[in-house]
Each structure stands twice: as structure tokens, then as C-alpha cells.
């Protein structure tokens, strides 16, 4: 984007060429390959505004948001409010659109704060949304940590940028190497449900590994190594990464099975909490026995 | 709609032309024959002065109706794709704009349409870029300074093939290196749908010599006309493909 850094910035007001909407740019929320997103205000309510000089891509994103709206009773992606052009004082033409501002935290931050048990639960909801999206003929494409937000009450994983959303069967429009199966030599860049599921599995691996990992000399081995740290989710992620799931429902069913199995006798809750809750009701001797038991459990857990 | 073919030359270089005719003039000649010329200039890391000039790179692409980028080699993979896709869209938009002017009269370009109407037109642009056939002749500078960059070039081309082959339209790629031993440029890989085999041809790229960018572009241009002639005779005078803007 030429000159955009200087022309489009926090503090200015944009007025639309066609619909004459007036939007203040309050704060920059992020920027990517296509454009920048700002926090703005519309009828006194916060909204997100995406602006770019890449007209074709922007117009297609609007098309995607409009068609997602048509998926009945279900909010897939942010709600679209307005779309317009902006002519800067220097005469440069920009295209922008205004959409719902989805407030929330990043998925990795959320998991760190709330505990790892939230990851599979949130993935479950996302798999449902992906299924709806796929059924209406779209593939999300650029699924990644940066494009996901955990919104509260109820806790739900929502996607915030539809820039990569592609019609089923076509070439993926926008992707990020780490999440792209073509980059890892593990499949094509054709828009099909398994493309999104690969990216979803890489997102989970990124969180479980505490960050991204390099492709290395043999990409498949690097992924295998990362899968070692995936714990219970390992078989599920492995299937998604090798394209064994042809739709989100298959992966969702496996995940549900896995989560229900978790109720088996092996204690996985942190030992410290267990001793604390027991100390109140029981005598000192019993609590010492319990503590020793908990420590043994913890050691076994660490050794695994 | 009949299947259409978009033709592009992708020039990858790290130096300025220093032998033969002006590359921008040859690029203009190519553009006149509906062949787009894109240029990627690779910068040398840690050098304040670069042998490749922004001005030359921009001039060639502008004359060739294409896109240019000046980058460090790490960005090559994404740039090769971006440039190829952007040039496709640009070409198709150009044709659509011309049609709009013819139908609706002057002053009716895509910019003059309100966003909602523009969406319908751009959907057509996207449809065409997804389904059109694409022929890309990749012209790689193999002078001595490119030697340690060829590995990156190879990876970027394989990645380009992965992206382009996910489209509905057909693709054909050919690779030329320049300078050749006697000629300005030599064919190192004949027209193929897949660039995966590129690994086998890259060791063949001898490095060294001057940078005859202009004559090398002319050689690439000849390749396209040879190919078209071959196709014509094979189809008994009938052209299978409708070319853009022709």
C-alpha cells in the first residue's frame, strides 16, 4: 500500500464517497497482506473498519461477508454494516468496509489463563461453525491463531478475518505458510474441508507446543516431532494433518469420543487443589497420606 | 465463454542489464502482443549499494503491462505468487474496463461504479482468473551473483506450481536461463504443467557472464511465437485458445 502509512492513520475521520458514512479511526487493531483494520464507531457503538487500496480483494471479502449473512440464524464471521470508497486528500482511492467488532482474547492467551481443558472444548464449537461454512460452499482458507478470537458469555471461538475465504473447489485465496498444507508438502491448495482441518490442527499444535516450529529438512518429521507434545489430542490431530477427515463432522465426532473418555479414573486434576479441598474435612494424618499420594501421582504424570 | 489463455514472462534478476537492447523496449513489444512482463529484482543482503535498480525493474514491468517488486531472497516465494496473481487480475480487469467503456460509454471504469455494483463485475474478474489457462515463461538470471540464490528460486517455483495447479484452469510453465553460452538465453525446461521436476534442471544452470536482459527477453518472446505457430499448425489453422485482448 503506497503512502497508506501516512494517509490512513489513527485520529483521522473517513467519510464514504457513496453512502456518506462518517467514521473516526480510533485505534489500529491489526494489519495484513490485504489491508489494515481499525476500531471505529457507528451510531455510538464500536465497530471494526477494514481499509485497503486492493479493490478486487476487498470487494470479494464483502461478497463473502454478505453471503455468510445468508446462512440462516447463524452468525458465521462478523456482521457487515457498510461498504464504501474513500478518496484521500491526495486523490488516492481506497475501499473500506465496516463490520461488527468482535471483542475477546487471543486463543493462546485464553488457554494460558483458563487452563488447557478449554482447548478441545473451544475446538468443538469451531468444528461446528466450520461444518456450517463448508455446507454453504465456502472454505475458510486462512485459518490461524491471529484470525481467531475467544468471545465470552458463552465462551466461543470466532473468526475475525474472512480474507482467505474461498469457494469450494477453487484455489485457496490467502494463506499463511505455517498453516498451509502445501507448504509442508502434505496436500494441495485446493479449497476443500480437509484444507481447513489441516490448518485447525496446526493451530492446536502451535498452542500445545507453545509456539510455531520450523519446517526443517524433512517437514513430515518436524510435524511428527511436534505431535509428541500433543498428549491426548495426538491421534485426532494426526488424522487431520494427514487428510483422513473429509469433513468437520468426522473430526468433531472423534473429538467428542475423546472428551467423554477423559472421565475415566486416572486423576489429571492438579494435585495441589486436591489436597487443599480435602484438608478441611479430614484429619492431619489423612491429609498427609493424600499429599503423598498426590505427589506420587504427580511424579508419574511427569514421567509419562 | 471459450477458454482463454493469459501469457506472462516472469523475469527474475539481481542485476542491471549491461548488454544489448533496452529491456523496456522489448517488454513493450511483448505487451503489444498480449504477453505481460513481470519483474522481480533480488537485493543483496548487507549491501548498501545494489546492482539491481528499482528504476529499471519498474520501467520493464510498466512497459510490459505487468507488476514489479524489489525484494530480499527470503520473500521470493510469496512474491512470485503475488506478482503472478496480481498480473493476471490486472490483465483481466483491463479487458473488463475496456468492455465497460464500450458498453456504458467513457467515464465508466470500475472505479466509477458504486461498491455493490462493482462486486458483480469483480466476481466475473475472479471467475476468469480462476478458470483461464495460464502460460508463464520464467526467465532466470544465472549470472555469477545469482549462484547462491538459485536454491531459493527453485523452491519458490515449486511453490508457485502448487498454488497455480489448485486453480480450475490449466497451467504451462517453461524455464529459460540467461545468459546462454552462445545465445542470449537458453531453454532449461520445456513447457510442462508441473514444476516439481525443476530440481533436476537447476544444476544445469551454468552461472557466469554478462547480463543481456533485453536480448534474453526477446528470446522469451520468440519462444511464445514459436509455440503459438506450433499450436496453429497442429490444429490445422484453427486456434484452440482465444487470447485476451486480441
UniProtKB/TrEMBL annotation, chain A:
Q: Do you know which Gene3D superfamilies this protein is assigned to?
A: Transferase(Phosphotransferase) domain 1
What InterPro entries does the entry give? Kinase-like_dom_sf, Prot_kinase_dom
- Molecular function terms, GO-annotated: ATP binding; protein serine/threonine kinase activity
**Which parts pass through the membrane?**
283-303
Keyword Disulfide bond included in the entry's annotation: no
Q: In the UniProt record, does the keyword Transport occur?
A: no
**Residue span, Protein kinase domain:** 23-289
Q: Give the superkingdom in one word.
A: Bacteria
The record's keywords, sorted A to Z, are: Kinase, Membrane, Serine/threonine-protein kinase, Transferase, Transmembrane, Transmembrane helix
Protein name, entry field: Serine/threonine protein kinase
Automatic annotation (TrEMBL), chain B:
> Which residues constitute the signal peptide according to the record?
none
Among InterPro entries, the record links this protein to: VWF_A, vWFA_dom_sf
Residues annotated as coiled-coil are none
Q: Which residues form the VWFA domain?
A: 135-246
Q: Name one Pfam family in it.
A: VWA_2
Question: Mind telling me what this protein is named?
Answer: Ca-activated chloride channel family protein
Organism listed in the record = Terribacillus halophilus
Amino acid at each position: 500500500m503506497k503512502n497508506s502509512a501516512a494517509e490512513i492513520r489513527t485520529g483521522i475521520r473517513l467519510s464514504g464517497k457513496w453512502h456518506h458514512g462518517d467514521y473516526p479511526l480510533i485505534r489500529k487493531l491489526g494489519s495484513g497482506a490485504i489491508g489494515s483494520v481499525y476500531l471505529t464507531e457507528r451510531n455510538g457503538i464500536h465497530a471494526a473498519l477494514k481499509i485497503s487500496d486492493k479493490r478486487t480483494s476487498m470487494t470479494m471479502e464483502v461478497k463473502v461477508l454478505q453471503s455468510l449473512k445468508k446462512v440462516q440464524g447463524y452468525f458465521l464471521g462478523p456482521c457487515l454494516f457498510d461498504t464504501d470508497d474513500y478518496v484521500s486528500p491526495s486523490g488516492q482511492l481506497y475501499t473500506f468496509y465496516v463490520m461488527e467488532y468482535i471483542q475477546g482474547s487471543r486463543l493462546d492467551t485464553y488457554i494460558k489463563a483458563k487452563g488447557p481443558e478449554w482447548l478441545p472444548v473451544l475446538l468443538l464449537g469451531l468444528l461446528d461453525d466450520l461444518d456450517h461454512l463448508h455446507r454453504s460452499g465456502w472454505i475458510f482458507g486462512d485459518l490461524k491463531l491471529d484470525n481467531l478470537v475467544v468471545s465470552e458469555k458463552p465462551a466461543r471461538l470466532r473468526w475475525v478475518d474472512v480474507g482467505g475465504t474461498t469457494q469450494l473447489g477453487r484455489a485457496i485465496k490467502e494463506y499463511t505458510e505455517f498453516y498451509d498444507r502445501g507448504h509442508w508438502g502434505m496436500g494441495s491448495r485446493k479449497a476443500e474441508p480437509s484444507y481447513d482441518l489441516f490448518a485447525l490442527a496446526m493451530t492446536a499444535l502451535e498452542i500445545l507446543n507453545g509456539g510455531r516450529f520450523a519446517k526443517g529438512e524433512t517437514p513430515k518429521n518436524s510435524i511428527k516431532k511436534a505431535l509428541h507434545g500433543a498428549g491426548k489430542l495426538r491421534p485426532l490431530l494426526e488424522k487431520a494433518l494427514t487428510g483422513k477427515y473429509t469433513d468437520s463432522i468426522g473430526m468433531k465426532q472423534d473429538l467428542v469420543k475423546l472428551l467423554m473418555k477423559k472421565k475415566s479414573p486416572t486423576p489429571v486434576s492438579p494435585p495441589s487443589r486436591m489436597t487443599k479441598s480435602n484438608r478441611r474435612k479430614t484429619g492431619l494424618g489423612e491429609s498427609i497420606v493424600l499429599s503423598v499420594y498426590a505427589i506420587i501421582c504427580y511424579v508419574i504424570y511427569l514421567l509419562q | 465463454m471459450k477458454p482463454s489463455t493469459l501469457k506472462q514472462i516472469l523475469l527474475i534478476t539481481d542485476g542491471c542489464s549491461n548488454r544489448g537492447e533496452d529491456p523496456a523496449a522489448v517488454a513493450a513489444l511483448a505487451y503489444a502482443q498480449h504477453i505481460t512482463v513481470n519483474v522481480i529484482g533480488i537485493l543483496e543482503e548487507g549491501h548498501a549499494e545494489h546492482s539491481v535498480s528499482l528504476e529499471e525493474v519498474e520501467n520493464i514491468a510498466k512497459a510490459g503491462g505487468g507488476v514489479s517488486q524489489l525484494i530480499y531472497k527470503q520473500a521470493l516465494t510469496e512474491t512470485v505468487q503475488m506478482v503472478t496473481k496480481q498480473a493476471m487480475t490486472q490483465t483481466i480487469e483491463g479487458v473488463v474496463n475496456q468492455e465497460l467503456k464500450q458498453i456504458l460509454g467513457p467515464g465508466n471504469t470500475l472505479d466509477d461504479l458504486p461498491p455493490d455494483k462493482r462486486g458483480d463485475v469483480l466476481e466475473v474478474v475472479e471467475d476468469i482468473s480462476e478458470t483461464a489457462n495460464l502460460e508463464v515463461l520464467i526467465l532466470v538470471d544465472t549470472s555469477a551473483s545469482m549462484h547462491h540464490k538459485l536454491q531459493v528460486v527453485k523452491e519458490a517455483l515449486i511453490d508457485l506450481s502448487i498454488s497455480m495447479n489448485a486453480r480450475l484452469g490449466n497451467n504451462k510453465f517453461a524455464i529459460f536461463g540467461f545468459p546462454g553460452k552462445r545465445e542470449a538465453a537458453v531453454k532449461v525446461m520445456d513447457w510442462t504443467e508441473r514444476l516439481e521436476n525443476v530440481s533436476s534442471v537447476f544444476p544445469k544452470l551454468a552461472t557466469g557472464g554478462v547480463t543481456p536482459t533485453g536480448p534474453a527477453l526477446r528470446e522469451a518472446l520468440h519462444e511464445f511465437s514459436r509455440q503459438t505457430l506450433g499450436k496453429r499448425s497442429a490444429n490445422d489453422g484453427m486456434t484452440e485458445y482465444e487470447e485476451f485482448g486480441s
